[in-house]
Amino acid sequence: MKYRTDIDGLRAVAVGGVVLFHAFPTLLTGGFIGVDVFFVLSGFLITAIIRSDAEAGTFSIAGFYERRFRRILPALLAMVAATSLAAIVILPPSELRNYGKSLAGVGLFVSNIVFWNDSGYFDTASADKPLLHTWSLAVEEQFYIVWPIVAALLVRLGRRRLLAGFVWATVMLSLLAAIAAVRYSPSQAFYLLPYRAWELGMGALLATGAVPPLRQQWAREGASWAGLALIVVPMLAYTEATPFPGLAALPPCLGALLILHAGQGAETRVGRMLSWRPMLFVGLVSYSFYLWHWPLLVLPRIALNRPLTAVEAAVAVAVALGLAALSLRYVEKPFRGRGTIALSRRSVLTASLVACIGLIGIGAGLFATRGFQAFAAPEIVAAERAVGSINPLRKTCHNDEGTDVLGPVGRCMGGAPLRSNGGYQVLLWGDSHADHLAAGFDRLGREQGFAFRQASVSGCDTLAILDTDDRRKACADFHRKALAEAARQPGLRAIVISSRWSKSLPGRAAILKSEPGAIRQMHDKLTQMVQLIRAQIGPRPAIILIGSTPEFDFWPATCLARAAKSGMGRGQCTHAVAADRRWGPKADRVLTGIEGVTVILPRRSFCRGDRCQTVAGDKILYRDDDHLTNEGAWFVARQAAAAIAAARPAARASDPR
């Protein structure tokens, strides 16, 4: 292919968007779409090379992978080597263990699958994973396992129309799958190849001649300006809340295709803008710039145990750009093409295999040793134990899927041993903020002699029981089943309701576009819910509302582990301003205004003003930013002891089944 300066300029736009988004998220809220532009560029360039070689009769799979490995591995290995050394020094054991898993994923080119598999409810924040950015490389390499063979074969057979049809079909099927996946499984849509293949396929459409040519200069100019707008506008308009990739990824991908298409055979004004010398420089170093920028933003943040300031982030970006320039000169160029380092194809392929096996081996070693946990100081181990302090009943009894399925009653009870009638005396009911209290109520139940039943579902507070919206049907049905079951318990003494009120109230305010309206609605809904409970169960069982749990913008247990690893002070981890300081107290005031209930406010024990504690004595109370450890659950549950002890069972007895 003839070298096109506008392509390097487009690379600069793509990598610039990604880096600015990562370094200064509020400056370019949609900069993440740069990755999608890269996918289109990759699909175009690689497919064009495959087509050219196949038409010339020189294509071979070994030759294709030799070029790929020369292109991607040297710079990748340099970044991974430096990042791994820094990770061993900086990361506490659990994070180093997870780093090892991702390192092995890089060696196998499946890091996208690793990160998708780890994107669960209690997973470490993505911003704390030094190799997270390698997911996009894995997607590309998975695409190029099968695509070169199919494309080359159809070109060699002269089946141009069949090839174009195959690419169009791939694009359409993958896009439709992505649109569906964004709605039902967003993390799957983001990380996995089947939902990203259409983006690489967009570039392949152009390279295979499946898109009609632009013959008039005015058409080329119009297409290039439209393409630029389709990239720039999403960069400015999209946010992390935008459902993505799916249909929202179509404008930037189409924009990249239009700019590439307009520049074929003629120059455009947009092409000349993209060929500006500083743009070319960034475009030429874009691959290494992408590789270096992320670990240089993540590892200092972990080492300092706080977010980077704007100046620090700017320095990290500047260092990444400098390392990228050095990498291009001394790492990429010597190996790219035939390079200046003379290696046979066999030597390149063998060295690449050995290097990948090395990454897998080192990663497996870090994982197997739990990040060298045996060498960690006791305070680090204690902090990391808190990160894993999760309700033992959670796996069986907490519904993390948002369905209407209640956990089996016989396996979702704790506290005192069951009585002869087999029923329970306390229902612990709500969302994940009920789930995180279960260990505390288990201990309280054993002390006071009551059995409790856990009924909790993620992201769904108990007020959903009043909803008639079909979109919340499963959530509402879950809570209706829980209440109906509780009504059949002959000795029911109390219903303890705990939800993430700090999120529920602002969610209502956003829908109603009125804070006072949201407060009134929440008050009315809570009153109606209490009336519904009384209608189904009667006047005697106590209704205990647990107020908001203070939330933070960091994980206290992880913060403590990092502080112990670095030797820095832990004060910023043990006391901090609550992230929900606006909505939490307001939600608590709504709860205290409900008649006929007992209200327990954890905030009064955790906080003095806006500053809240995350530890009590030597006990760590939080496992992540808003969920309590089992010790934290006891810290809250014992505040409900008097209310439960004073509660009387329901007046009527019925079948407990």
From TrEMBL:
Gene Ontology MF: a single term: acyltransferase activity, transferring groups other than amino-acyl groups
Transmembrane segments: 7-24, 30-51, 72-91, 135-155, 162-184, 244-262, 274-295, 307-328, 348-368
Transport recorded as keyword: no
InterPro entries in the cross-refs: Acyl_transf_3_dom, Acyltransferase_3, SGNH
Keywords: Membrane, Transmembrane, Transmembrane helix
Pfam families membership: Acyl_transf_3, SGNH
Positions of the SGNH domain: 397-639
Any one Gene Ontology BP term: lipopolysaccharide biosynthetic process
Location of the Acyltransferase domain: 6-326
GO cellular component, one term: membrane
Name of the protein described by the UniProt record: Peptidoglycan/LPS O-acetylase OafA/YrhL
Organism encoding this protein: Sphingomonas yantingensis
